[in-house]
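Late entry, evening session. Most of the bench is empty. Finally got around to the prediction I had been postponing all week. Sequence below, unchanged from the version circulated by S.P.
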Amino acid sequence: MSRTLQRIGIAADHGGYELKKYLAGKLREAGHEVVDFGDGRPKENDDYPDFIVPLARAIADGKVKRAWASVEWVGASVCANKVAGVRACLIHENFSAHQGVEDDDLNIICLGGLVVGHALAWNWFKHFSPHNSAARSAIVAVWPKWRNWKTRHRRKRQ
């Protein structure tokens, strides 16, 4: 595991509460600062955007370096990606966990709280620390160009 201590955001709805609690404990044991965006206790009627949007804004504002979201549904990554500067993805297997961080510079990993086991999620943290890959930096640097192209393309079609 990386020896670089980080400020890490974490959030979950009722479906991901137990996994969030486990990960927060492990992160603290490892010496990381954990910023918990909720939910503070599992409630069946909670709504994940109430936790994911503040988490995503903290990433975009630089208040946390990386973040974990553990929810019941796929929508957490969709919700988080609506915030400029966020690169979130639902992860449920090893290849995407590694590739998403190493090549695509994910800053939020979204986990299915009822699908991903505690030990597997903790193992992925090793690959979620900052990398200094020149190749990754070059890929990420061209994203704004394509984002603008896509936006212009949509406007022309409307």
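Two things to note before I forget:
The two ends are 48 Å apart (CA to CA).
The helical segments are 17-29, 49-60, 75-80, 94-102, 118-125, 134-157.
Will write this up properly tomorrow.
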